Structures are given as structure tokens and as C-alpha cells.
């Protein structure tokens, strides 16, 4: 690792993360910094995702803070990594904190952001706010996915709002050609 460029290092980190070789990816990241290679935003985003997928939320949030201290402004990929991994572990209150921070920093949410937040808010019992975000998402012309509809319907039924759940189910069944597809969930990491 004496002359590789950041793109190559990012791809190696990503590959180790995808293979579940978390410790090796983190060792490379530490070695990279020891050799005075300066991580870029994509490196930080990759490490956030690796730590989050490994369930190392405290490390992920520490890395998120370190990234900001190093002068990197988190982008939508950074926030989505944090939000999605917090959501998976049921840390809904912390999701809301980072979602608000995202808005305060002028980072526009995308389909992944809305999906994570609608799911988080609904599962935490705040279906009114999840419906507000659903409306906001549609107003921004972001096509919902079937996952968003299913989450809303399930959470509305749990909260006893069966009529509204049925209305959304009818809407979902009548507009299947307007759903966001798998390509809408792909991340742009530029690796």
C-alpha cells in the first residue's frame, strides 16, 4: 500500500465489507491512515456501512463524528448508512435526530431515506409523522416502493387505523406501475 490511489483502496474496503471481512476492512482503513493516505468521502461512507452492517453502532456513530471533525460534510449516502443501520436495530429516536440534522445541513432525502424514516416512525408508533413523510416524499415526486406501502399499511393496522390502511392498500394495488424499482434502491458510491 505505498502507491495505490483512493479508488483502489475504496474498492478493496468495499469488497472486504461485502464479504463480511469486517476486521480486515477496518485494519486496512487503520493502516491507510497510518500511512498518511487521506480518506475521502466515499471511504468514510464505506466504513460507515461496514460498521453499521456489523451491528457496531457505537463505532459507526463515532466514525460519523470523526468524519465531520475531519471536515467532511456528510452526504445523502452517509446519512442513509446511519439511518438504515439505526433502523435495523430499533434505534428509532436516534434515527429522528440524524434525520433532523440531515435537513438542517441541507441534505435532501431520497427514497432510501424516506423508506428508513417511514419504517422507523411507524414502528415507533408515530404513524401520523410517517404519513406526513409519505406525503412529502410524493410531493417531491419520489415514487414510493412497495416496501413503503407495506410498512405504512402494517403500522396503520397495528395502531387501529384500519380504514386508512385499506385505503392505502387499494392505492398500492391500483398503481403498481408507478412503484420505485430495485434500481431506485442502488447506492451511488462511485467506487
Structural class: mainly alpha
Which CATH architecture of the largest domain is right? Alpha Horseshoe
CATH class of the largest domain: Mainly Alpha
Q: Count the E strands.
A: 0
The name of the CATH topology of the largest domain is: Serine Threonine Protein Phosphatase 5, Tetratricopeptide repeat
Determine the number of helices (DSSP H or I, runs of at least 4 residues).
10
**How much is the radius of gyration in Å?**
18 Å
Distance linking N and C termini: 18 Å
From N to C, what is the helix and strand string? HHHHHHHHHH
The stretches of 5 or more residues where confidence is low (pLDDT under 50) are 187-191
- β-strand amount: under 5%
Helix content: 55-70%
Look at the structure and name the CATH superfamily of the largest domain. Answer: Tetratricopeptide repeat domain
PPR repeats: 5-39, 40-74, 75-109, 110-144
Family: Belongs to the PPR family. P subfamily.
Organism: Prunus yedoensis var. nudiflora
Keywords: Repeat
Amino acid at each position: 500500500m505505498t502507491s495505490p490511489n483512493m479508488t483502489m483502496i475504496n474498492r478493496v474496503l468495499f469488497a472486504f465489507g461485502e464479504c463480511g471481512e469486517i476486521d480486515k476492512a477496518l485494519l486496512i482503513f487503520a493502516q491507510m491512515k497510518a500511512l498518511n493516505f487521506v480518506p475521502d468521502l466515499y471511504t468514510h461512507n464505506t466504513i460507515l456501512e461496514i460498521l453499521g452492517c456489523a451491528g457496531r453502532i457505537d463505532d459507526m456513530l463515532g466514525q460519523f463524528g470523526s468524519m465531520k471533525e475531519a471536515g467532511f460534510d456528510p452526504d445523502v449516502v452517509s446519512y442513509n448508512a446511519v439511518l438504515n443501520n439505526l433502523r435495523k436495530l430499533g434505534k428509532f429516536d436516534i434515527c429522528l435526530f440524524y434525520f433532523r440534522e440531515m435537513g438542517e445541513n441541507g441534505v435532501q432525502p431520497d427514497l432510501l431515506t424516506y423508506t428508513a424514516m417511514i419504517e422507523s416512525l411507524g414502528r415507533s408508533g408515530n404513524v401520523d409523522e410517517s404519513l406526513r413523510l409519505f406525503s412529502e416524499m410524493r410531493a417531491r415526486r419520489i415514487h414510493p416502493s412497495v416496501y413503503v406501502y407495506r410498512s405504512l399499511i402494517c403500522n396503520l393496522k397495528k395502531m387501529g387505523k384500519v380504514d386508512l390502511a385499506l385505503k392505502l392498500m387499494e392505492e398500492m394495488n391500483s398503481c403498481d406501475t408507478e412503484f420505485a424499482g430495485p434500481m431506485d434502491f442502488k447506492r451511488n458510491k462511485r467506487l
